[in-house]
Structures are given as structure tokens and as C-alpha cells.
Amino acid sequence: MTAAIQAAEQGAKVLLVDENPILGGSLAYSRLDAEGTQAEALRQAMIADIESHANIDVKLDAACNGYFGDNWLPVIQGKRLYKVRAKEAIMCVGSLEQQAVFHNNDLPGVMMSSAIQRLIKLYGVKPGQKAVVVTGNDEGYATALDMLDAGIEVVAIAELRDAAPESELMQAVSQRGVRILSNHAVYAAKASGDKKHLAAVEIRQQVSKGTCADSGETFACDLLCMAVGYTPTYQLICQAGGQLSYNDDTAMFTLSKLPKAFQIAGSVNANWSVNAVCGDAQRAAAIAVNRLAETVERVSAMAEPAPIADDSANSPNYSWPIFPIRRVRNSSISMKICRSKTL
Fold this sequence. Notes:
Blueprint: H1 2-9, E1 14-17, H2 38-51, E2 56-59, E3 62-64, E4 72-77, E5 80-85, E6 89-91, E7 95-97, E8 110-112, H3 113-123, E9 130-135, H4 139-149, E10 153-159, H5 168-175, E11 179-182, E12 184-191, E13 198-208, E14 211-212, E15 217-220, E16 223-227, E17 230-232, H6 235-239, E18 243-247, E19 252-256, E20 262-264, H7 274-290, H8 331-342
Parallel strand pairs: 1-2, 6-20, 8-16, 9-10, 9-16, 10-11
Antiparallel strand pairs: 3-4, 4-5, 7-17, 12-13, 13-14, 13-15, 18-19
């Protein structure tokens, strides 16, 4: 939305395509502050700006499902296919949340934080009664506050980081009496008696990268929230010729080698804080408008901006949320197997 507003204000005609039924992307369900008001206020302000611009054409419930040469973009809305030839394309396609890896992490009731927030905020669904959170970022605390506001008991938070900065969101969760276990991870999820749902999780202290202590504490719950990081929604960008790379030091993916007349912005471009995401969108829009022949005179005094400063310090990606279960080998069974092979 920021990129569309910026480009329209510089005189460009903009087609804004959103796959959702309402504008706002993650602002429609995310929590940015302890009070839970900032995201919706920002979303409404942007919607007002978009609706006031005659240069912006919005298509909701629409999807761009491919990229072809010279910015030929098929946009599908309902039963209609629009063949769009864009002089400049800006992809603000966001990122997809990734799950933590541990035993039984595919049980019903084990969910990612963004899924829980969508159910609560967009659909009015209470996804559980008693929850545990495993997190390596502030979004876990934001989701914990959303769950508490929805009447869900949050019994514990397994904080993967050893020394997480005490943010406003963390303080708000702590003040509401939630137990926070630093440098701890979910070692395993346990199924209910009928094996159809989550019944409890075992939380253990981390002793090294990807390794937990020999024993821990079990918490009964029917909902586990995972907030450990994101990967960019790279598919359309890679189809256009972009290259996806991974940086072990920052635990982030990056996209490079983009085609001409093609920009990316936001979390897909490894920007995470609201200010960095909006600033990156303004940068991409300024570059795109400057390259449009019919508007170059209007913005000729506007220098092509430098890339947004590194936002890796605000990355929600925890470097190694992978905790394999250790199985004890049964020596008597091993001996029988060896003997049978000998015979």
C-alpha cells in the first residue's frame, strides 16, 4: 500500500493487486504494540490515502499467478483474467511463516503465530483453551497477548533466545502473569489419548545449538503457538529470474538478480520493522517512477534513493529452531538382531 501511495503521489497510474478480500495485508491481523491499536490505525490511514487517489485502481480477491517477459502479468479475479502489461512492477508479496522442528510438530493444535492471529482477528475463531508459545522473536509475545484477549489461557512461553531484549510486548505479557522460560525450547509435543489432537508439550532448556537437556517440564495444553521466523514469498520473483540465497549469519533469505523494470520491497526484501518496510516500499516506488518516461520530468529532481539500511537486527528469524528427539537404543534388541544375522 505504501508503494502504491508513493507512486500515485508522483503522478504514476497504479494497479494495486491484493489476494485478500480487504486491504492491509498483515496489518489486518498483526499486533504491533501492547495495546493492540497501532496496526489497525495505520491500516485505516493507508486505506484512506488509497481511496483518495484517482490514480490507484484496486483489485481485491485477485492474484497475479505468473510472470512473463517485459512485465506481462496475468491477474485473476473471480472468473476473469486480466492481461496486464506493466511498465514497472513492484512486488510487495511478503513472507511465509516457518515452523519449528521437533517431535510431533504436525499434531492438530500445533499452529504458527500468524495462523492463530488470523483465526482470532479475521474470523472470530478461538483456536484453543490453553496455550503454550515457543518463540524466537517479539511476534510470539504479540500473539500471546491476542490469545489472552480472546480468553485463551497462556500457561508458558518457551523463549528460544538466551538474552532476549525486554520489549514492550514482552513486558506486557509478563505483567499478565505468563511464565517466560528463557533459553528453552519445545522438545516434543504429546498427542491426546485418541492420537487426534495436541494434549501437552515438553519444554527443555537448550544446552547447545539444536540440543536440549536430558529432561524438562511438561505443560498440558491444546494449542501450541510457534513464532520462529519467516521465508520470503519468492516463487513469483524467482519465476521472473530472481535468485534466492541464504545467509547463515543472519538466518535470512535474500533475493537478487532481478529483471529490469522490476522491484521488490518489504519483508520479501528482508525488512521487518514497520518503519523499514514502509521506507523500503517508498524506495522501490521512487525508483519505479523515476524510470517511467512519461513522469521522469516531474520527479527528475528526485535522486534515486539508496537501499534501506540493514534491518537484520529486527529479523524475527531464530537461527536454529530444530530440535531432533534423541532415541535410546535398546541393547537387548540389538543383540538379538546381531545373532539372527549370524545364524
